[in-house]
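Input/output pair, single chain:
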Amino acid sequence: MRSLLLGASASVALAAPAHAQEQQQVQFNVPAQDTASALNEFSRQAGVQILFPYDVAARTNAPTVEGSFTRQEALNRLLQGSTLRLASDDGRTIVLQDPNSPTRLGAADRAAPSRADEEIVVTGSRIRGAQTSSPVLAIGRREMELSGHTNLGEALRAQPQNFSGGQNPEVGIGIATAGGAANQNASGGSGLNLRGLGPGATVTLLNGNRLPYDGVFNATDISVIPVAAIERVEVLLDGASAVYGADAIGGVANIILRRDYDGAELSARYGVATDGGYEQQQYTALVGRTWGSGGFIITADYADNTRIEARDRGYLSYMINQDVWIYPENTQQGVLLSGHQRLGRAIELSLDAVYSDRVQTTLRQAGTLVDDRRDAVTWGVAPAIAIDLPATWSLRLAGFIGENEVEWRTEQFNITTGAALSLQSGCLCNTAESLGIEAEGPLFTLPGGPARLALGAGYRSNSLSYFGINNGAPLTLVDGRTRDNRHVFAEVQLPLIGEAQAIPLVSRLTLNGAVRYENYNDFGDVTAPKVGLLWGVTPDLDIRASWGASFKTPTFPEQYLTRSITHYPASFFSVAGAPASARVLYLSGANPDLDPEQAEVTTLGVIARPGFAPGLRIELGWFNIDYEDRITTPLSGSITSAINNPIFAEFVTLNPSVAQQNAAFAAVGWPVGSFASNPAGGAYDPASVIAIVDGRNTNVSWQRASGFDLTVSYITEALGGTLSLGGNASWLDGERRFTPLSATQPTTGVIFFPPEFRTRLSASWSRGDFTLASAVNYIDGVVNTNLANRPKGDAITTVDLVLDYRLQAGSFGPVEFNLGVTNLFDEAPPYLEPQANFVASYDPTNYSAIGRVINFRITKPF
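Output:
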């Protein structure tokens, strides 16, 4: 059999006759998506197993199905526009066939039940079948294939809720930005940065498991996962530390892999930027096999792209060195394995494994010519065992072990002579381990359905070794630090009211709550609660609300990177009336006594599915993130005014005692009387010290991010085919204070921060084997705060276009062709006046310099 998906299923626990089950009304909530994904969701909600040819279902789109329907009514709605038809239904297993395909399913394939926890548990909850009260953005593989993007990083950077600062190949390695250290690119990978709060404030999961951190800012490299292996990505746009633990402040992204695929496919892609530079090639192989009690997929992927030099873009002709690269060279190869095997009717084993090796090279200018090379090797293995318990409870034991090692090499050269000036090399070596157990099941019955409980416990460990060689001398920055945590959690869902009660303006009312306790070896305990409410006003209108506390752990460099103490003359700080002999001790660098950053996240939203427009879904949501105890260096850029400026009073100790001075030396790990630097000259005399100024990292900054999200989807029949329309927009307003008394500064709409408004509008039309898709992307302009008059740059609008066709090539079988053009009209990034003639005149954290790219992919399924 070719391309057979053993659809996600939930075994029917009630021994009711098939006819009775078919006539029973079920509350469905299946969003518009490709038909394959929609059938998987239907299987979960209907409580039946479903078998269908995946390759046929994946080529069409299904409309939204929400409301109370019989199983057959809901299925008929989902199959609109698809050639799939019902072959058999024994009450427990539904089999769909394509009358135009010779593929048939045998009795053995129909008989065996299958677990699919990835389909049963939605992102944002650990309760099977839960409808979360938080906003979730779902992006299917088919949607990514029709976007014109070539990898997962590109596809997710296109989403308006994500900020491209941080781990993004276009952000030059090591280039500082006003957005802060966390928004720099440390490894050349691709990391999510929801709401622009930093890549470390977003949790990224692979089938529910955390991957190792990438670089030094707690980011996760999503580019290691090939798109061909992905079923969909679910992005939770809400804080969720109560469910997932540390770092879930901006949100959570769960990369869900394809579970069951029967067959094989080979694909090749070639793309080129029409302005010059950036030639890309990509080759992918996918093999899958299913049998009655299990299955597996293996995906191998190779991709590389050439560089873009300044000379390739006319608007950069002013740059003094036309040899510098504004986009790096990349070569990446990897393999992914995912499999599952059922033992009897109650136990299932599963395993996910990934390996990736990426080499990125960049030539840039920063006063000197800098040649950067990053070789990033990532691997991870995630085994799990799931057990069905009595009374429809389930138990799951899961583990993970993995590494992310970024070997770096940085050479600096004299621009004029080419002579070598310095050489540094080393490793950013991250490791991750975890082990957890959780149970889930019903507690008792409420009017709206069964109350359900999930609870569990676990252990997680992360470590970083940041070391190297500086011009032949050993360089140790973070010496093998490890952070361990042990945690317990509980989550409950209470369906208080259901449709059967026929209460006006309350078709359903569900309350959910979660709490998580974590204990860390370096800073102690953290507790994170969350509550949510889902109110169905009518079957066509829902209101959702949530509130939760989330937290983010300090990064290892923030705690353990270089610490120092400097011996300054008091005149450096302009201390009035101080004698010439007066001295000041200045502390800087890391701080091992940091606490977690804390946030309160509130969301409120309304979801409408107008009955007069079947297939239309509108969701408008508001969010507010109150983020405090952020780690910062409060005196950065203001050292000389620290003593005289009252806003820094809490960081200054006047007339310190000898004991306080000794404590200052101990805080940075230096012997008393020894200094990293001694601008004051002479020996240390405690009697001459009139102040201690603490400029180390500290939990003192505050930040707020709030705004609105709007998502719209509509599927209908048009021109003899299926028309799908979608829109995703985000309005963001943000500000921060470095200290409680500091002036408030904007963190949106300014250079190197997210814009205030972004949107992506998409449309696709499918008929048979042909699909035409397009998207319009709008990114608002940002203010250039590098200039005194603070001019605002222009906004940018780009258009993407994709043609997709599946050719039935006779005895050779089907061949799929995909032609994509991103930035169809070749829009240049908005101009922002550069500070120097070796700095690019645009903001690479918001806008791309690649320009128009034409790419062509051919895929041969077997």
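Confidence is low (pLDDT under 50) at residues 1-22, 101-120. The radius of gyration is 28 Å.
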